[in-house]
Design brief:
By secondary structure, this protein is an alpha+beta fold. The chain has a domain of 53 residues. Helices cover 43% and strands 12% of the residues. Strands 10-9-19-18-17 form a five-stranded antiparallel sheet, sandwiched between helices. Strands 2-4-3 form a three-stranded antiparallel sheet. α10 packs across α11. The radius of gyration is 32 Å and the shape is elongated. About 4% of the residues have low confidence.
Length: 634
């Protein structure tokens, strides 16, 4: 009797210790991870959020490949082929571009639910995941999933016997529930008994908290599916988009088998590097699923070599072009944004396209791009972009300063015209020397000039240096200083002792550049009835410094534009105004240690980003007008 009491006491103590261990494990991992991870997955806003329209305008141009990629990641329910057939009357193909024949509304992009940088995840309900996925996953990974309670003792014993027979670990006994715990709750993957115990406890608890359907939903939303185009892929919805450029419901059975095959090791079976491994495993999985009567050989067919080759080429092309990398960086735009989601995608893609080309050509690593675009005459907020998305956007726009180069010249010529100069006036181009307190200074000319004198219009159009300094000296540095100080914060004074600022040595943030140009353009629009303006002179890009880099599709269009380039090509700028919006584009090197001539210019970098975006953004070219900037009085 005494022995029985001792045994009973030991049992109670043991149960108490087990219960305490379970309590500690659950309290340690569940509150901060499960409730913010699993429950948010189950209850998160679904992919069919209320859409906000994005319009392609009649008469605009687009790149059809851009539109196809955008469509895949949009809230559109139809497949690309269905949508294309439905709207074929809206488009006319003409060589490398497509013309929009009538206004067309596009749905916005799906919301990216991944909180990490360079990651993509679409939270979707089980109803958006085709049955071939979860049936196939259960058939391959956890055949008894619907019957066990989070831990499958049969599978554990079977795996243990197989390991003992081979003398090494050849099988795993983990259930799908345990895989959820590994992926979401237990951050490290160390092989310790304590970790395995924690995994078992959490798996049993999850089975008590969530239904089998919810556990499958969590699995398919959270599992890691490898990486492509520099993006981490989480969940089946994202995997379907990145690997096949389709939403999950449009995948066929063999494509589902390929994605299931990738789960074993996304890097080991990567279609970019190891497509033969992936083909072998996909065939194996497809065969097993046919044996389990989940797929039918009469209806579902494995790919032939030709289909594998086509898919491999598509994957590698997208890996080079990185169109989905651009998709992940399109911000969640509100109705108040100056750019809609399609415009934002096109701009982001063109930025990284050109950035990649410049990096490859120059071998420079620390290149970055910044953009601000402001729609005029409305309450729309400025659109801002910084290619180094891992850094703070606000700081990059409001604190980080860059030399402005020739962007200063329209500001200076506006002052010159206010002081009585006119575009047809002549100015000498010969060398000029100034005796400063710091010593003699002679501005260098970046262009070959054959004429002894040029008009102010030509000097501004060709962005000559010496005429700017000579005009300031002639009009009086003090008077020019007064005009410039209103638009250039931190202008060093007296200007007479720091004349290099007339050539762009001043440093401004992007927001300060935007403010300066908003001010000068508004002023020029205000006085356009009284005198010629810098807008008049710089509104024909065909004759400016970008003429040699201008696309035929943009030639003849009137808008205000100005490039800027600083010493050795460290900073490259383009500012434009088309009557509807003002944009500031910057491409440059943020750390300039061991400086060398980059051979970069605003006309071949920042301007090209603007041009590629402006042509294919799905908007008509507007007529250049001051009406929105300076509304006419009634």
């Amino acid at each position: 009797m005494k022995l029985f009491k001792i045994i009973l006491l030991l049992i109670f103590i043991g149960l108490g210790l087990i219960s305490y261990r379970c309590y500690v494990v659950i309290q340690t991992y569940m509150p901060q991870n499960l409730k913010t991870g699993l429950e948010s997955t189950v209850n998160n806003e679904r992919i069919d959020a209320e859409p906000v329209s994005t319009n392609l305008e009649e008469g605009s141009l687009i790149n059809f490949k851009d539109l196809k990629y955008y469509h895949s990641f949009s809230q559109e329910k139809n497949s690309w082929n269905q949508w294309q057939t439905q709207h074929e009357q809206n488009f006319a193909q003409n060589g490398n571009y497509t013309k929009v024949l009538s206004d067309l509304a596009l749905l916005p992009l799906l919301n990216n639910n991944c909180q990490d940088v360079f990651c993509w995840q679409i939270i979707s309900g089980i109803e958006d995941i085709p049955s071939v996925f979860w049936q196939g996953l259960i058939g391959i990974e956890d055949f008894r999933f619907l019957h066990h309670q989070g831990v499958d003792l049969r599978s554990i014993l079977r795996a243990l016997l197989a390991d003992l027979k081979e003398g090494r670990m050849v099988q795993g006994g983990s259930t799908l529930t345990q895989q959820v715990v590994k992926n979401l709750l237990l951050e490290n993957n160390e092989k310790k008994i304590s970790r395995k115990i924690n995994e078992l406890i959490l798996s049993l608890y999850i089975e008590l908290v969530f239904s089998k359907q919810e556990i499958l939903e969590i699995y398919f939303n959270e599992v890691f599916w490898g990486g492509l185009q520099g993006i981490k892929i989480k969940g089946v919805y994202s995997a379907s988009l990145f690997y096949f450029n389709k939403k999950p419901r449009f995948l066929n059975a063999y494509e589902a088998a390929i994605l299931t095959a990738l789960l074993k090791g996304p890097q080991y079976y990567s279609p970019v590097k190891h497509i033969d491994r992936l083909k072998e495993r996909a065939d194996l999985i497809f065969k097993k699923l046919v044996e389990l009567n989940l797929f039918s050989e009469k209806v579902d067919k494995p790919w032939a070599s030709k289909e594998w080759k086509i898919w491999e080429e598509e994957i590698k092309e997208r890996e080079r072009e990185k169109p989905f990398f651009a998709i992940t960086l399109v911000p969640s735009l509100e109705k108040s944004s100056s750019l809609n989601s399609y415009e934002s995608y096109v701009l982001t893609r063109k930025i990284y396209e050109l950035l990649g080309q410049v990096k490859e050509r120059t071998k420079l690593k620390d290149l970055a791009v910044k953009v601000i675009y402001q729609k005029i005459g409305s309450q729309f907020s400025s659109y801002e972009f910084y290619s180094k998305v891992e850094r703070k956007l606000d700081r990059s726009m409001s604190e980080e300063k860059h030399q402005i180069g020739s962007l200063v010249k329209p500001l200076a010529y506006s002052v010159f015209f206010d002081l009585g100069k006119r575009p047809n006036d002549l100015v000498e181009t010969a060398e000029i020397k100034l005796n400063l307190i710091s010593g003699e200074w002679a501005p260098k000319e970046a262009h070959d000039i054959t004429e002894m004198k040029v008009t102010l219009e030509e000097a501004l159009l060709k962005s000559f240096n010496r005429p700017v300094v000579r005009l300031a000296q002639e009009l009086g540095f003090d008077k020019v200083e007064t005009g410039l100080a209103a638009r250039i914060p931190r202008l060093e004074k007296p200007l007479q002792e720091f004349p290099a600022q007339l050539l762009g040595s001043s440093e401004l943030t992007l927001r300060e550049v935007m403010a300066a140009y908003q001010d000068v353009l508004t002023h020029e629009c205000t006085v356009k009835e009284e005198r010629p303006t810098v807008i008049d002179i710089l509104s024909n890009p065909d004759e400016s410094t970008v003429a040699t880099n201008m696309d035929e599709l943009l030639k003849g269009h009137k808008y205000f534009g100005k490039t800027g380039t600083t010493n050795l090509g460290k900073d490259n700028w383009y500012v434009f105004f088309d009557g509807q919006g003002i944009g500031v584009f910057w491409l440059g090197i943020e750390s300039f240690a061991g400086a060398r001539d980059t051979r970069l210019f605003g006309s071949s970098t920042a301007f090209k980003i603007f041009q590629n975006f402006y042509i294919f953004r799905g908007r008509r070219y507007p007529l250049l007008s001051c009406d929105l900037l300076v509304p006419k009085a009634n």
